[in-house]
Amino acid sequence: MNPKLYLLTYGCQMNEYDSSKMADVLGKSHGFERTLVPEEADVLLINTCSVREKAQEKVFSELGRWREWKQARPGRVIGVGGCVASQEGEQISARAPHVDLVFGPQTLHRLPELLDQNRRTARPAVDISFPEIEKFDRLPEPRAEGPTAFVSIMEGCSKYCTFCIVPYTRGPEVSRPLDGVLVEIAQLAEQGVREVTLLGQNVNAYRGPMGNNSGEFCDLALLIGYVARIPGIERIRYTTSHPAEFTDALIDAFGDEPKLASYLHLPVQSGSDRILGMMKRGYTRAQFVDKIRRVKAARPGLSLSTDFIVGFPSESEDDFARTLDLIDECEFDSAYSFVYSARPGTPAANLRDLVPPELKQQRLQQLQARIRVHDDAFKQRLVGTVQSVLVERPSRRGGGQMTGKTSSNRSVNFDAPPGLAGQFVDVSITEMTTNSLRGVRV
Ligand code: SAM
Ligand code: F3S
């Protein structure tokens, strides 16, 4: 019988992607199969996130619970990967001695060796280095799971926003060579993938080496053009991108490339220039608004998503009012919003944080309510239109319904046979619900 692997993932889409790669490498090297039941597992891995304090604290309470799991059967192995591992390194085994493997986001491909080393030495195996691009060369061939797939095109971040831990835990920006990206996407397309999301902490910093040491580099706008030419690929998304490097070429791509989905995630963080400056984001509100105005002109009907941090140290009523006002000005129809969380080792952690916690929560709710207004308006505008929907899977609601996404990243439920999964169908949108849309096939 094949050994079983249980994987717990915290954090962002990058982490989801990395977790699937952990399963792939251990499947290839040791024949591991994934299980959703921890009691069945021989190896438990937790892929961690340290972007906010809460996520980090959850890791240690989870590890506490796993001690008994390990004692229940000799030979069981516990591994901690991701950004908390990268940040804490050996400290993890000191605080939780039953942890056997500690590896960072850039060393997950070395899991097979770390597992063997741990079994050989009976000591924790730790590797949290940043061996640049080696990770991509060592990953097994991609496996499609349905008609959509994520493809990592770059790793790390070199922006050093004053609040953010990522540059310290994931290392500097490193782009994957163009050929490797295109080959992976072609392999996925052959397996039935129709939509790819190009993934990275800052995909618009992508500078993929081209050809054999030609010294030339491919940027994200050019990459989108190449991906669009891969047979079978009909829709392209990317996430996440930084406003300072959201270039004219990327704006033009929304006008010129029909395969580029009508959805843009561009994290702004705040509407106040004072706070943007303190965050070292590298753009002003006016520069951001100008880019949004131009991209919306290039692609009417574009869905616009962003990230916000509320309660950054010293954020005043006036700063926050500017953020609310920016939501209306740009009409963001979706957003990930967070209360500021001081991350040890980042410059902002040294600032005096005088915004009371209740006020931060209040602002968060106010902000989310404002986004909901624009989300509802966006969905309402889709009612009565016909949308091209990529059918993904049976709807969780059952009842013979299938679910898929519009180009603008909205989920739609409609009556259809399961055999339609993986195809684009035209759906007339009849109704909006809190989180999705309903429609009928035309
Ligand atoms: N590359 C993206 C950008 O251009 O901003 C962001 C990637 S970051 C890992 C994801 C989001 O986490 C950020 O946009 C920010 O809103 C949030 N975040 C990062 N550090 C945070 C902190 N210390 N407290 C609260 N939220 C934070
Ligand atoms: Fe973090 Fe800023 Fe990079 S939010 S991931 S340091 S762009």
UniProtKB/TrEMBL annotation:
HAMAP family: tRNA_metthiotr_MiaB (MF_01864). This is tRNA-2-methylthio-N(6)-dimethylallyladenosine synthase. It is found in: Cytoplasm. The gene is miaB. Monomer. Residues 380-442 form the TRAM domain. The keyword S-adenosyl-L-methionine applies. [4Fe-4S] cluster 2 binds at C157, C161, C164.
